[in-house]
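Give me structure tokens for this 428-residue protein.
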Amino acid sequence: MRSYFVLLIGLLVIGCSPVSKHALTKRFISLETRLHDHTGFILYDPSEKKELYEYQSDKYFTPASNTKIFTFYTSLVVLGDSIPGLRYVESGDSLIFSGTGDPSLLYENIYDPGKTFSFLSRTNKRLYLADGNFYTEALGPGWAWDDLPFTYSSERSPLPIYGNYITLRQSANKINTTPAYFSFDVTVRDSAEKALLQRDIGSNKMDFYPGKIASSGQWKTPFKTNIALTAKLLSDTLKKEITIINRVLPKSAKTLFTIPSDSLYKEMMQESDNFIAEQLLLTSAGVLSDSLKPEIAISFMKKNYLADLPDEPIWVDGSGLSRYNLFTPRSIVKLWEKIYVRVPRERLFPLLAIGGKTGTVKRAYKNEPPYLYCKTGTLSNNHCLSGYLVTKRGRTLIFSFMSNNHPAPSGTVRAEMEKILKDLYLHY
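Here you go.
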């Protein structure tokens, strides 16, 4: 009988013991062989400040939307509890204002987009839009041309409106656009097998091909931005004249704050909203200087807050759309540790995608209670996942799992990642 209990206890200990490093290495080598990919992984215990396991964590990978972790940290450092929505100066009967990059103005993905609109709508002063603080291209470096028709590739601008995209709705034979300003830019063509909206690459002229089967769906595409179009859209929406002036507002200009910062962070981190990420990096640059230029925020962070990362990040945009970004898994884990120290867990975890519950991992990593609080990142042939893993024994660990150059479907890669992470949850 005594031997039976000894054996039972031994089996329980084995069942709860960590997966051996040798076994994990064999597993990653097998994974790379089967998927023909390039894999990096690291598991870290922040309470003991100890690396538990790593596999090629010093190699550089294309991070895709894991880049948003860097934008998130930048925003936490630079921005306050609320987002600066406008900078403005009142002079006599004039209100001169400029955008800060705030993406929330009439953006349907944000629950409270109305403060900037209400402020400009209520004033009786003449409105002047200052054009002198935007020092970057509308499209980021390393963005793919074939992404341009999609709203996840909306253009960057100093004062975005409606998310910088057009929504077209078809109801029976009627076509409506939001903003309504673009209704005259749509040409209805002959019916196609499937309804399709195409925008001319060099303008905002659009062709709409109704489907042969009537539908009441909607289609979205980014519009090409410029300061004149922003003024027209805002004027059309406010029903007020807006004049453009070439001017940089003084440091003494007042700031109108709009929505709580966490409402933007949550949408960016859970749903991987590229538009919000790009605009937050611009907004951060505007707080640090008088120019909306992402390189300003990136340089500031690399010099003052990221200089101690294990490997220098090659970081060029806010969203991860760029194929030029390169990070190592161990640097991403170090960044998550910095965030974990700065932000209380009770605030931080609800902002992230939660396995089986919210965001981009809502249908994966299911468990009760949830064990994964994370950020995904996907581009063609690249999939990454990193964040916090709360084990069955209650340990909070930090991990980064990066897979690049895989010819297999991303779903196959995700399934293999889930198997490994679930084993780590069970055995650590």
